[in-house]
Amino acid sequence: MSTQFPKDFLWGGAVAANQLEGAYQEDGKGWSIQDVTPRGGWGPVTDVPTEDNMKLIGIDFYHHYKEDIKLFAEMGFKVFRTSIAWSRIFPKGDELEPNEKGLQFYDDLFDELHKYGIEPLVTLSHYETPLHLSREYDGWVNRKLVDFYERYATTVFKRYKNKVKYWLTFNEINSILEAPFMSGGISTPKDQLSEQDLYQAIHHELVASARAVKIGHQINPDFKIGCMVLSMPTYPLTPNPDDVIAAMEFDHRNMAFADIHARGQYPGYMKRFFKEEGITIHFEPGDAEDLQHTVDFISFSYYMSTCETADEAKKVKGEGNILGGVNNPHLEASEWGWQIDPQGLRYVLNTFYDRFQKPLFIVENGLGAVDELITNEKGEKTVEDDYRINYLNDHLVQVGEAIEDGVEVMGYTSWGCIDLVSASTAQLKKRYGYIYVDRHDDGSGTLERYRKKSFNWYKEVIATNGQSLKR
User: Active-site positions, per UniProt (predicted)?
Assistant: First the structure.
């Protein structure tokens, strides 16, 4: 039986400004936290941007976006997820007036997308807090960032109210638990950051997100505004009830973010956690009311699942498990240790829909791999990336299964639809795209673009609305 994807299903791809735009100081842009992490979000932080930081140039999308969007249109994209670089709009983050040249760039970008009938899906904050806000205010630990973010969100909502319908407030907001600098702009080293300060920073982000939902709907009631979480379904390592409870409690840490976005209040299990850990979340007047401005849909990334156990002797963190957990002995892993579990995507779709009864949007999923550029029989440069095709096919089949289960899925934007710089490692050799970009970790390359084998495969998937997938 072949799955009938909805007729209006939003097929497309996803990127982040800091991983592909480059032009890190062009047209008035300020520095972001990404400009001082040359080894990726989990690596060391430098005082100033250094030449070995691949993100400073990225794939120079800032100057190549027209040709890249033409390629996306050739594949048949219905939607393109990108982010606005906050420091292009407010270079330091705390200014009163925005940078007009930064605003104009995104005007031009969205116009180019609409030229081909592609809807923008825009993330307001995708791991690119202005560096000044990190160093001067310690990022989201400081309550002042709520107001700075509100000013930024209001500015772009008003500017693009007739050009952008779909918005996300924060990228993978729950990743702040493991990456407080990259995710929350928090300059205090992770090993010195108290849980009190961490969860207060999270509260500030959640309030800011809810305020953005409220303001966005006031500016344009037709806006569809979602949250975005890193999904990592957690299985008990064994049927031992202790492992089942350990998996539930681990899952709660991440599920809380979607719970608050979708339900408008802190769940009971988080209140228990705060009580047992001695954490007191300070609510400013109006915070509780602001949180009740819930999102229109839930979006998420899905790359892997994980396991959890109560047995301390077995708690060996998997190499690629971003949020922790232990490896599943029944699954294989990618070159970067990310365990491959297509059925986990069906599982998480069902879990989220059963829990929230809101539309879901898969806004990141893909396989990072080392690709080899070759010249085929036709004399064309390409990549024979059957491994990527197989990965994506198997995950999309499971999306179809979830749709058959009755889950309301809005769309699917595979991650890194064009090769870009990895967020976690700042490498270019970790490639996700349907389009190969000739740039390498040593900075060499022509920046030429080449269609991989997966390019035409995805083009057919979109053209047939998923009917070409192999079960």
Answer: 364 (nucleophile)
Domain locations in the chain? 10-463
Is the alpha carbon torsion for 252, 170, 212, 32 positive or negative? positive
- Domain 10-463: what homologous superfamily? Glycosidases (3.20.20.80)
Which candidate in 112, 205, 308, 364 is catalytic?
364
Contacts of residue 241, Cβ cutoff 8 Å, sequence gap at least 6 = none
Q: Is 239 exposed, middle or buried (0-12, 13-18, 19+ CB in 10 A)?
A: exposed
Whether pLDDT at 32 is above 70:
yes
- Cα separation, 427 vs 423, in Å, equals 8
Q: Is 21 a catalytic residue?
A: no
197 — pLDDT class (breaks 50, 70, 90): very high
Q: What is the mean pLDDT of residues 11-36?
A: 98
- Reported as a pLDDT band with limits 50, 70 and 90, residue 454 is very high
Name 270's Cβ contacts closer than 8 Å, sequence gap at least 6: 252, 256, 259
Taking the alpha carbons at both ends of the chain, their separation in whole angstroms is 9
Cα distances (angstroms) measured from residue 361 to each of 82, 227, 300, 415:
14, 10, 7, 13
